[in-house]
Amino acid sequence: MVELKGPTDLVSKTSRQKVAKFILGAANRMPTRAADAFEGYGVMIVGITKNGVEGVPQSK
């Protein structure tokens, strides 16, 4: 399972909810389906889109 999250401000509640949703979804997958990709690991890459690397705003 690969999830690409574009530039996101991890300070905002909405962005943190999206990250948490991915983590919960990856943790609750069926093991047999999870094993088909990345040996069962879930991978989320933050700050990248299909168009390339866009980064993550620096927290203050």
What does this structure look like?
This protein is an alpha+beta fold. The protein has one domain (2-53). Helix content is 32%, strand content 20%. It contains two helices and four strands; from the N terminus they run βααβββ. It has helices at 13-27, 31-34, and strands at 2-5, 43-46, 48-49, 52-53. The strands form two sheets. The protein has a two-stranded parallel ribbon. Strands 3-4 form a two-stranded antiparallel ribbon. A hairpin with a 2-residue loop joins strand 3 and strand 4.
- What is the total domain count? 1
Question: What does the largest sheet look like?
Answer: 2 strands, parallel
Helical proportion? 25-40%
Order of helices and strands: EHHEEE
Short description:
Helices cover 32% and strands 20% of the residues. With 60 residues, it is an alpha+beta fold.
Give me some keywords for this one.
60 residues; alpha+beta; two-stranded parallel ribbon; two-stranded antiparallel ribbon; 2 helices; flat
Strand-helix topology:
Elements: E1 2-5, H1 13-27, H2 31-34, E2 43-46, E3 48-49, E4 52-53
Parallel strand pairs: 1-2
Antiparallel strand pairs: 3-4
